[in-house]
Structures are given as structure tokens and as C-alpha cells.
Amino acid sequence: MSIGRKVAVITGASQGIGAALVEAYLERGYSVVGTSRSIAPSSNPNLLTIAGDIGDPATGRRVVDEALARFGRIDTLVNNAGIFLAAPFADHTADQYAQVLSTNVNGFFFTTQAAIEAMEKQGSGHVVSITTTLVEHPTAKVPSVLASLSKGGIAAASRSLAIEYATRGIRVNTVSPGIIKTPLHPVETHEFLSALHPVGHMGEIEDIVGAILYLENAPFVTGETLHVDGGQYAGF
């Protein structure tokens, strides 16, 4: 157990934004628990990695329990794991629907429930979840009903949680990205994806990391959706 270090739990931590968040929190002196299906074991005493499907209701509870056993506390949960499937609404299959709801909604619900239970006992904590600006500003160029259904639910639930736990020392916020350069987007799609933003380019992983770290250090901010989307929310 690392006495005196704050602890961050990060889902979807094996690549992209999640992996960058792991490094950012470690650099700031946190102990970190990272989870994803394919995350590699860690030899760093301040980094605990846990492989598992976050859509399984048992995984979130296991991640929180192992975090508490190893480090003794949880100060921050970043719900970063998510699936985005762009397809016409009528073309989505039942399996796709189940997959998106499992990862996006189950992953948020059961992990957040377990983490907030631990945070309430210690009298403090912060939950921040990744949503998408498509929830509030859809575009015909990117059919996104499943994203809006799942991530929109997370945004609404986060505001509700922020109010429910406002007097108990727990803050709950969301970050709403535009399209970010991650391994999910092949280089050949970048020109098209860049044009979906008023600023004319995609976001960088560092933009999202910076937004989450801002919220980490903003004790008077809760129930907020921070748009990091190159102007998409303002209109295009």
C-alpha cells in the first residue's frame, strides 16, 4: 500500500486516451488502477492492472475491491472505456445493441456504483466519464443513435449523481469530446473526420487528458459537461 498517495481508477486503460491517463496520473504522484480486456501486467508498484470485461457487472466491483486491497482508497474514477458503432439506425443488430449497452452503460453503472460506495466511506472522491458531443449535437454525416442512447444516459446520470452526492464530498463530471486522434481512427479517415469540426482538425489525446486533469483540480466544479470538441457543441 502506498501511504499518502491518491488513487485513480481508469477503465479502458490499455491504449489511446486511457493509457495516456494512466501515465498522466502516475506523473502527478497518484497510484493508478488500470483495467481493460487486454491490459498487460505491471511491474510498477504504483500501477495495478486488472484484465477484464468492464461490461460484466462483476468486473467493476472486482476492480474496486482490488484497488482498495492494494492501495487502501479510491480518489478518482475515470470511466473511459467505451464502444462507438456508426451505422444507420435500422441496420444495427441485436448483438451490436447488446455490446454497446454492455460496455458503455453496464461499465459505467457497476464500476461507478462500487467506486462511489468506497468514496462515500472516506468522505471524498471524483468521478469523471467520457461521453461525446454527438449526444447534444448530432450530425447526418455520422449516424450515432447507439452512442447517443448510451453516452447520453451517462451524461444525464452524471448530473443526477452530482446532485445526489454534492454534500458528501463527491464530485461527478463528464468530458464530451469531438473526434480524437486515437488508434480507433485509421489515418485515411482523418481528412473526413477533421472536417466535422469547426476548427478544421481532430483533437489530440492530450486535449482530453488536459480536460480531465483540469476537472481533477477544480473542487468547485460538479455536474459539469466539459466540451472538448473543436467547436462542435457551439454549432456547425
Give a structural overview.
With 236 residues, the chain is an alpha/beta fold. The protein has a single domain (7-228), classed as Rossmann fold, CATH 3.40.50. It contains 6 helices and 7 strands. The protein has helices at residues 16-27, 57-71, 94-122, 145-164, 190-194, 205-216, and strands at 7-11, 31-36, 47-51, 76-79, 125-130, 170-177, 225-228. Helix 1 packs across helix 6 (205-216) and helix 2 runs parallel beside helix 3 (94-122). The longest helix is centred in the middle third of the chain and has 29 residues, at 94-122. The protein is globular, with a radius of gyration of 17 Å. It comes from Allosphingosinicella deserti. InterPro entries: NAD(P)-bd_dom_sf, SDR_fam. This is 3-oxoacyl-ACP reductase.
Labels describing this entry:
alpha/beta, 7 strands, globular, 236 residues, Rossmann fold, seven-stranded parallel sheet, single chain
